[in-house]
Amino acid sequence: MRFTRKRILSGIIAALILVGASSASYQAGADAGHDAAYTEGYQSGETAGRDSGYQEGLAVNYDKGYAEGKSAGYSEGTESGRTAGYAEGLSAGKDAGYELGYAVGVTDGKASVKSSSTTTSASNTASTSKAAQTTEDTKTVTVYVTKTGEKYHRDGCQYLRKSQIAISLSNAKSQGYTACSKCSPPR
Questions:
Q1: Checking CA distances to 63, which of 47, 72, 113, 115 falls within 20 to 30 Å?
Q2: Tell me: the pLDDT tens digits for 45-88?
């Protein structure tokens, strides 16, 4: 076979065209592969970063919020319990003291009446003195009324939470107030 110049040139041209076409295909494939890899890497990195940041933020802020909420709730509960316990304890203590004092007073009064009943005049004097003392006591005994209520109360009664106005027992009675059935103030 004889190679002619024309044939050799045709072969070289054909080879150059093939190389040029391959080079363009190679570049297009490389560009497409690069773009696909870039997009996939970007999306994977974004997802991983968002998930990691979320978990870290959740852990830090959850613990912080929990600690603040616990502290606030504990403080408020302690103060509320202390206030309620004090009011109930004060009222119960006064009630118990009043009942005990009343019982001792009745016993002492009966003993006094028995010992002084030997003479009628002594008894009459004691009765007059007792009546005067009772009237004097109602003027000095302090009870409490509210702005809107119709009852008078002992200090510490649960009904005195919104308003508490001090007044003498005799003034309370003369203004038409009656005794509270819950706290049993002096009558």
A1: 47
A2: 788 777 877 787 777 777 787 888 888 887 787 787 777 777 77
